[in-house]
């Protein structure tokens, strides 16, 4: 049971956690904190938070659990603002999509990694932002990755694990570096492909006509290109090393595919498509 939960950044991710914990009766009071007043007023009106403030230092006062769910570029500033206002037993965790940058931001702000800081990442979301997009079931049967460090307090880790499980999630732990490499491949690269494809087509002269004749495959593939540009700029910058490596690798594979097409190498094309179909079918089976 969390007595006082401070949510810094009451958007899709922060708002959904607050809703889930409230629905489970696992939280006493929820204090929301953010920069945009209309979003905080909406959070209050929707019953996602009990009170709100625009000052993170005020939000964390007396809180036993603090969830930071702001864009990655705002993490360090939030850590610096809350640093001197945390209760000694308070646990700080976050939902940022990259973990190496959050750990570096925490070390930069606190001087050393606080033992009661548990870096985390829910592998769940949508292309929508803001508290109005949040919903209590977002984390049901979805994975949450925690990346504790050797200095992380086991009791803090256990409490954050229990919090996510109460929200309906399955919790996995892994190292910061492994997290950032895996997510570069499975989440950050696909978002780059969607953004890149839609931008390329949008800049072609005939784009009105092209979009008019786009079929379901285009819609499925490009849904994530509607995601928040600020959030994705921050993810790219924060995970630039792993993402650049994945993009370079993918570029080589695309060049190979283009060559096979140019040479009408049907055998090679069948080999690539059959391997990809089998892999996706296996993924869907295991995700069921
Ligand atoms: N959108 C998604 O599908 C997922 C996002 N994430 C991560 O979760 C975090 C939050 O993302 P969303 O909830 O989607 O974004 P969002 O845009 O819905 O919510 C972010 C909130 O943070 C507030 N904010 C921005 N700067 C702030 C600051 N300096 N101080 C206090 N509040 C501030 C904004 O006003 C906004 O209400 C990001 O770090 C993102 O990488 C993680 C998993 C999935
Ligand atoms: O909308 C989708 O399908 C997503 O992939 C959402 C998402 C975005 C960022 C994350 O770090 C995790 C999940």
Automatic annotation (TrEMBL):
The keyword Amino-acid biosynthesis applies. It holds the Pfam family PDH_C. One of its GO terms (molecular function) is prephenate dehydrogenase (NADP+) activity. It is an enzyme of class 1 (oxidoreductase). Pathway: Amino-acid biosynthesis; L-tyrosine biosynthesis; (4-hydroxyphenyl)pyruvate from prephenate (NAD(+) route): step 1/1. GO terms for biological process: tyrosine biosynthetic process. Its EC number is 1.3.1.12. Signal peptide: none annotated. Keywords: Amino-acid biosynthesis, Aromatic amino acid biosynthesis, NAD, Oxidoreductase, Tyrosine biosynthesis. It catalyses: prephenate + NAD(+) = 3-(4-hydroxyphenyl)pyruvate + CO2 + NADH. InterPro entries: 6-PGluconate_DH-like_C_sf, NAD(P)-bd_dom_sf, PDH_C, PDH_N, Preph/Arog_dehydrog, Prephen_DH. The keyword Amino-acid biosynthesis applies. Residues 3-288 form the Prephenate/arogenate dehydrogenase domain. PANTHER family: PREPHENATE DEHYDROGENASE, PREPHENATE DEHYDROGENASE [NADP(+)]. Belongs to the prephenate/arogenate dehydrogenase family. This is prephenate dehydrogenase. The lineage of its organism: Bacteria, Pseudomonadati, Pseudomonadota, Gammaproteobacteria, Chromatiales.
